[in-house]
Structures are given as structure tokens and as C-alpha cells.
Amino acid sequence: MIKQGVKNYIKNFKYFFTPLGAIALGVVFGLSLGIPIIVDALKSLLDIIVQISENTTIRLQDLINAIWTKAESLDWEKPIFALQTLLDKNWLTQTINSCIDSIAIDISQLEAYIGECVNQISNAFAVFVVFVVFGFIGGYFLTKWLVRREIAKRALWKYFLVSFIDSLLSATLVAACLWILTLWKASIFISTLVSMLLFGFIELFEAYIAHAWKKVNIKKIINLKNISGLFCSYLIIFVIAAILLGIVIAITNVLVGIFVGIALMEIAFIVIGLNAESYVKSVAAKEIKDVA
Questions:
Q1: Which position has the higher pLDDT, 168 or 7?
Q2: Residue among 77, 78, 114, 108 nearest 96 (CA)
Q3: What is the gyration radius of the CA atoms in the chain, in angstroms?
Q4: Which of 63, 64, 176, 216 can pair with 212 through a Cys bridge, CB separation 3.0 to 4.6 Å?
Q5: How far apart are the first and last CA of the chain?
Q6: Which of 98-102, 218-222, 257-261 has the lowest mean pLDDT?
Q7: pTM for this entry
Q8: Which residue in 246, 241, 257 sits closest to 9, CA to CA?
């Protein structure tokens, strides 16, 4: 169980660039739609400035450069904080204000126009983020489809059957754990342990229904040894992913680490979700072969 789980993770590194490619595609579409919105917003603001102050020497490129310079000065060693700042309307407003402060013009005359410009830029950022998220989600499901085809292919009707069973059992498990927790606060440790064991049971039971029903004795699939082995494989896979991620960050930087980490963790989660099926499918295939 453990050996097969780790082997599945390493073997599916070949799909490493699939989620990254999908995210990159989302970035390209997001930029292609977002950048024109930003340029048009700044151009409209510049036109208003020119109308109010005919002697202004400010150019569109000056506004773009000001925003770009301010964005570059953010602490990108903390990318989440930097992105939050970049998307903050107050930061955008202050950045644009600082660019046009040198003009001999009453800034209060431009407040409404600057606000409109900032709103349009924020909308452009939102469009960009939406496409990146779509790329992330699309990449995940494409990678999962490829990995499933590799280690745990199953018929469509089995997919719907197992999905129904999974929803039913998982909901029951969550409800039971919450109920136990309301009875005794300290039971969080007990409920966590029980949840882990039951989760392993659910994974193996679903895999048994999909791949070994009436082919293998259920006791050969669902037992404490296999449940423990399943979780040991999960832990080892996470450790491998964390070590690889740490190496990438040490060699490059946090931003590259996050980008690479997305692929490593996506494949890790996908393989973890399919390991039980992969194991049960191999046991069922061996059982059929031995009988034949």
C-alpha cells in the first residue's frame, strides 16, 4: 500500500506542467483582457487632466510607469501581502495621486475621475484573478483526469455511484464528529483519530465498490493494516512534496516556489485521493489472474 502510493506520486510527476500550463493560459487570457481595461481607464483620466489643465506635460506612459514602479517596490518576498496591497483601492488612489501631484492643479477637481479610474483598474484586476482561478480549477481537473486514467480508470456509472456514496458517508462522518464534539470539548482528539480511521475506511470501501465488488473478499481490502498503510502513504507523499517545495524556494524565491508548489500539491492531493482505488484495483486484478 505505502510503496504503491509513493510510486504513484513519483510516476505522475510527468503531469507536472499540466496544471502550470493551465494557470499560465489563465494568466495570458486575464492579461489580454485586463491590460486594455487599465490602459483605457488611465487614458480617460489623462484626457480629463488635459481638459482641466491645458499646460500639463503628464503622459499616459508616466501614469503607467508610476503604478509599475510602486508595484515593484512592494515586498514580493511576502507575495500574498503584496497582492493584497496591489488590489487595494486606497493604494491605487494614492499611487495615481502621487503621479499627478507635480501638476499645478487642484487635486480635488479630479477626485471623482480618479475614483472611477481606480474602480476600472480594480475591475481589470478582478478579471485577471477570475481567469487565473479558472486556469487553476481547469488544470486541477485535467490533471486529475490524466492521473485517474493512469492509475485508477473506472466507468462513468461507477463514478456517479461512488460520488453518491462518498457524499453520503462523508456527510455522516462530519455530522457524527460534530455531534461528539458538542458532547465533550476534549473529544476533539478522539474524534480526529476516529475521523482519520473512518476516512480511510470510506476511501477503501468506495474503492471496493468501484473495483472489487464480488471479486475480492471485503476483509482483504478493508482492514486496519490497509487503513494505516493508506495514511502512512499520505504522510510520506506530503513530506516529499514539502521537501521538494523547500528546495525550489531555497534555490529560487517564494513566488517561484508558490507557482511550482501548486503543481506539486495538486498532484499530491490527486494521487492521495486515488491511492485507495489504485490499490484495490491492483488487488482485484491479481485475484482474477490467480483464479484464472
A1: 7
A2: 114
A3: 27
A4: 216
A5: 24
A6: 98-102
A7: 0.72
A8: 241
Q: What does the pLDDT average to over 113-122?
A: 86
Among 69-83, 190-204, 235-249, name the most confident range.
235-249
Distance CA 287, CA 221 (A): 12
CB atoms within 10 A of CB 72: 8
Distance separating alpha carbons of residues 248 and 238, to the nearest angstrom? 15
Q: Which amino acid is at 166?
A: D
Report pLDDT for 105. Answer: 61
Write out the DSSP string of the chain: -HHHHHHHHHHGGGGTHHHHHHHHHHHHHHHHHHHHHHHHHHHHHHHHHHHH-TT----HHHHHHHHHHHHHTS-TTSHHHHHHHHT-HHHHHHHHHHHHTTSSS-GGGGHHHHHHHHHHHHHHHHHHHHHHHHHHHHHHHHHHHHHHHHH----HHHHHHHHHHHHHHHHHHHHHHHHHHHH-TTHHHHHHHHHHHHHHHHHHHHHHHHHTTTTS-HHHHSSHHHHHHHHHHHHHHHHHHHHHHHHHHHHS-HHHHHHHHHHHHHHHHHHHHHHHHHHHHHHHHHHHHHH-
- Which residues are within 8 A (CB) of 248 and not within 5 positions of it... i.e. 6 or more apart? 256, 257, 260, 261
Q: What is the per-residue pLDDT for 111?
A: 77
Q: Which residues, in sequence order, are CB contacts of 104 under 8 Å at separation 6+?
A: 53, 55
pLDDT for 159 equals 59
Positive/negative CA dihedral, 219, 222, 224, 226: positive
pLDDT digits (tens, 9 = 90+) for 96-113: 777 776 555 666 667 788
List the grid coordinates of 253.
Answer: 524565491
Distance of CA 74 to the CA centre of its chain: 23
* pLDDT class of 162 with cuts at 50, 70, 90: low
